[in-house]
Write a structure and sequence with these properties.
By secondary structure, the protein is an all-beta fold. The protein contains no helices and 7 strands. The protein has one domain (3-79). A 7-stranded antiparallel beta sheet has the order 1-2-3-4-5-6-7, with no helix packed on it.
């Protein structure tokens, strides 16, 4: 299960993404109201990849939305740990 840590400065987001598949990577993005968007850029076995997350924040403890990559699209859900 990926672990994402966010740091918010106004509407700007920065942070860290960690998963077994991608490894360790930094992220950047924005949050405006309940709408969150962030991008993770990583290098997986010598191949650069970009994960684009777009979704909505549900309360203070969860979010859900769409994940887009050059390999295909999917959905995501997340909960505060």
């Amino acid at each position: 299960m990926p672990v994402v840590t966010f740091k918010q400065d106004g509407e700007k987001l920065s942070g860290h993404y960690s998963s077994m598949l991608v490894g360790e990577a930094e992220l950047t993005g924005t949050i405006k109201g309940q709408v969150i968007q962030f991008i993770v850029r990583a290098d997986v076995q010598g191949t650069p990849i970009e994960l684009k997350f777009e979704g909505t924040v549900d309360g203070i403890d969860s979010m859900k939305g769409k994940l887009s990559t050059e390999f295909g699209d999917g959905t995501f859900t997340a909960k505060r740990m």
